[in-house]
Amino acid sequence: MRKKITAILAAILVTGLLAGCSGKNADPIASSASSEAPKNVTITALFMKQAGYSEDAIKEATDAFIKENPNIKVETTFVPYEVLEQKTLVANGGYDVILVDAPWTAKYVKANLIKEVTDKVSTADRDDIFAGAISAMQYEDKLYGMPWLNDVKYLFYNKEMLKQAGINAPPKTWDELIADCKILKEKKIVDFPIVWSWKQAEALAVDYALIAGSFGGKFVEDGKPVVNDPSNIEALKFMQQSLTDGLSNPGSPEYLEEDVRGVFSSGKAAFALNWTYMFGMANDPKESKIVGNVGIAQVPGTAKAASATINGGMGLSIAQSSKNPDEAWKYIQYLSAKDFQKKHAKDALPIWKSLFADADVIATNPELVNLSKTQYEYLINRPQVPWYGELSKQMQVAVQVALLGRSSPEDALNKLQTKALDMSK
Amino acid sequence: MQSGLRHRWFILFSIIPALLFVFGIVLYPLVQTFIYSLKNMDLLSDHQGQFVGLNNYTHALMDSDVWSSIGRTFYFSGVSITLEMILGLLIALLLNEKLRGIAFLRSIIILPWAVPTIVNAAMWKWIYHPEYGALNGLLMQLHLISEYRPWLSSPWLAMNMVIVADVWKMTPFVAVFLLAALQMNNKSIYEAASIDGASIIRRFFTLTLPFLKPTILVLIVMRTMEAFKVFDLIYALTQGGPSNGTMVIIYKAFIETFSNLQYSNGATLSYLIAIIIGILTIVYVKVLKLEEGA
After folding, report:
1. What are the boundaries of the signal sequence (chain A) (predicted)?
2. Does the beta-carbon distance from B14 to A13 stay under 8 Å?
3. CA distance A77 to chain B (A)
4. Which domain holds residue A219?
5. Mean of the pLDDT values across residues A367-390?
6. Chain A contact for B238, CB < 8 A?
7. At which of A369, A395, A413 does a domain end?
8. Measured between alpha carbons, how far is A125 from A353 in angstroms, rounded to an integer?
């Protein structure tokens, strides 16, 4: 009896074991690589969910691409921006095409995650792409991806509120902005006139880099950190002051861009800095209470710099581990082609300079296209060094320490400089 | 004799799948992580992969940021476990009574624990939202605050709000464990005690609490291990902010590894966490044994 039971158990275990093995063979990546049929391949691509081109637009274009190239199957994955970087690092080898944000390029190159594509983009094409978009994908003068998403931050304002306050034009400098905010607050038009995305996250590093830039500051010079530069300190003081004066929304230290959009679109702020996508969404009746009152303007500046905006450009890169780099590149080319970029110009402005003269592109949003031409002249990059990720993390903490008044801006940045020197070694 | 040998082979054969699992997903990562913690696995550096001995550990132990995140982890664990134990005990005592609808109460009390942590965190994120959060709405209606305020914008407050979210989720777990223990309690002792004139409070402290002690200790050990590894809540609610106010040690290890690509630092921190939990567990077990001996 006992033997019978053990025999049955053994049989179950063995089948279980075999099933386990066959399960492994069914692995999609393994099967696509082993199939010998003439170039029948599956490539996988990683995108983000918010901002820039919509999920629908990408899926539609992907379907069209598959139709044109029946031998290539493309599987797309969409994740929130906040996990895009981790997903890329953890799933090392899991994707063929990766969406890369400007500040990650140097790090990915150092960690050998993406392929160099310098020779794949012709000089003619390169001349037609905005310099900022190209530089986002460059490290040490080599190109590591196709620029794809062209994005910068703008100043958004609520036209109705400004009119009520008797303000005729959006502010050109931060001083003007503060003066306007004071009027808005005194007249009780809005409790907290301006809202920021200052959560301990990359969003804060973006805003600080931008504001510091408009004060004439820089974080890294010739590969060495200069974080405690007087201009940077001045910029941080400005940020801190706006919070202590009650002009900035006190929730700012816990907001990301999407929260900023929520606050601005529900009519609880007169000013906000955000990426291009907010313009469309704040004018969408389903998403917003302030449709028709959304103004967009150049980011304010100082006497030292008329304006400054951050390069939020992103590009598509081929993963170093990709088994089908040629097909992956073909797909990348399809998505960054003028056709696609023109068709979806209302989601994000094209990377191609020539498209800015195209009547259809201008027609999607004349105000934005015109503004973008001047705003692009004040483009700054976050430091393009491999240790930027670490610097950004520490900078977020240092800036918040000062914003919350737990340390003076000078002390916070001096301490950060010491740490940054250690990182850059 | 021969059948005994065959029997032994069979045993070996049967445990192979389990062995594979244990080696593959427990031992291998454990050993690999330990090796990483002894090397300089800095993915951004040109020289990586050499053994550096205990350098990573001394470096981590001299870093004041590491100590403050360990401190924060202790604060989080201490406060949340204390609150969970007190609330859990009170709820368990209530659920142990013969009331109408007690079965219904017992089943709904489990709900918070049944919710996945990340869902729980997402829910609290909305509750705490400064502009349209339910907490602000509730406190306004009760006239406890005069205007909406942010809850996660200052370091200390943010930490305590994260603790509230954790307590809400884990109290039911404690309550159910204690309730199970209470159900096994001998009712006649209580009857005897009340006939002897012991008050309800006296009965609680001389009968119920000593009886529950082993369960409470086991719960504390389990909860300490989990609380030390709190991650999902921080990830979804604050991401370590503001100004590192909720940067617990495990989140720091995560950032070091997957954001800064300093695999060695991450591995070292993970092992430090394991060591701390190990020490705490040994202490708990000693205490437990002492209690049993006494």
Report:
1. 1-26
2. yes
3. 20
4. 153-310+387-424
5. 88
6. yes
7. A369
8. 10
Task: Kindly report, residue by residue over A316-355, the tens digit of the pLDDT.
Answer: 999 998 989 999 999 999 999 988 888 888 778 888 988 8
From the list A107, A150, A143, the residue with the least C-alpha distance to A122 is A143
What pLDDT, in 10s, does the model give residues A187-200? 999 999 999 999 99
- Cβ-based neighbours of A79, under 8 Å, separated by 6 or more: A46, A47, A48, A49, A87
Count structural domains, chain A: 2
| Residue B191 included in any domain | yes
* Residue A393 within a domain: yes
Residue B200 has pLDDT above 90, yes or no: no
pLDDT-based confidence at residue A32 (cuts at 50, 70, 90): very low
Buried/exposed code over A271-299 (b: 16+ C-beta within 10 A; e: otherwise): bbbbbbbbbbbbbeeeebebeebbbbbbb
What DSSP string runs through B217-267? HHHHHHHHHHHHT--HHHHHHTTT-STTTT--HHHHHHHHHHTS-BHHHHH
pLDDT of res. A423: 86
Q: Does B42 touch chain A (CB under 8 A)?
A: no
CA proximity to B164, closest of B154, B152, B178, B177:
B152
DSSP state of B42: B
| CA torsion through residues B135, B136, B139, B140, sign | negative
Number of structural domains found in chain B: 1
Residues of B in contact with A17 (CB under 8 A): 16-17
The residue ranking higher by pLDDT, A19 or A55, is A55
Same domain, A170 and A303: yes
Of the candidate ranges A163-172, B89-98, B180-189, the one whose mean pLDDT is the lowest? B180-189
- What integer is the mean pLDDT of A294-302? 94
CA distance A173 to A182: 14
Q: Say what percent of chain A tops pLDDT 70.
A: 90
Chain B residue numbers touching A86 (CB-CB < 8 A): 258-259
A328-332, B115-119, B197-201: least confident range: B197-201
Amino acid B8: pLDDT:
86
Using the predicted structure, report yes or no on whether residue A34 has a pLDDT greater than 50.
no
Per CB-CB distance under 8 Å, the chain B contacts of A85 are 258-259
Query: Which of B239, B243, B258 lies at the smallest CB-CB distance from A201?
Result: B239
The answer to whether A165 and A141 have CB atoms below 8 angstroms apart is: no
Output phi, psi for B147, to 5 deg: -145, 160
CATH number for B113: 1.10.3720.10
Run of H or E including A405: none
For residue A390 the two structure tokens come to 């670490």
CB-CB under 8 Å, A6 with B243: no
Determine the Cα–Cα distance for residues A113 and A296; give it in Å rounded to an integer.
37
Write out the DSSP string of A294-345: EEEEPPPB-SS-S--EE---EEEEEBTT-S-HHHHHHHHHHHHSHHHHHHTT
Q: Is residue B45 part of a domain?
A: no
pLDDT score of A156 more than 60: yes
- B223 to chain A, closest Cα gap in Å: 28
Mean pLDDT over A69-84 rounds to: 88
